[in-house]
Amino acid sequence: MILQSLTNYYEILSNDEESGIPKLGYCNKQISYTVNLSLDGELLNIIPMKIRAQRGKKTVEIPQNIEVPEQEKKTVGIKSNFLCENASYIFGIDNKKDTERAKKCFEAFKKLHLKILQNIENPTAKAIVNFVNNWDVDKAMNHPALSENLDEILSGVNFVFKINGGEFAHRNKEIRQAWERYKSSSASGEIMQCLVTGENSSIARLHPSIKGIKGAQSAGASLVSFNDRAYESYGRFKQQGLNSPVSEYAAFAYTTVLNHLIADTFHKIHLGDSTIVFWAESPKKIYQDFMSLFISGGVSQNDETMVKDERAASEIKSIFEKVAEGKNIESLSDAFDESTKFHILAISPNAARLAIRFFISNSFGEFVKKIGKHYLDLRIEKQYDSDPDSFSVWRLLNETVSPKSTDKAASPLMTGAVLKAVISGSPYPSSLYNSIMLRIKAEKDITYYKASIVKAYLSRNTNKIEEVLTMGLNEQSNNKAYIFGRLFAILEKAQMDANPGINSTIKDRYFTSACATPASVFPILLRLSQHHISKAEYGYLNDKRISEVLEKLDIGNNPFPSNLSLEEQGVFVLGYYHQRNAMYRKYNKKEEEI
Question: How far apart are CA 421 and CA 194, in angstroms?
Answer without folding.
Answer: 33
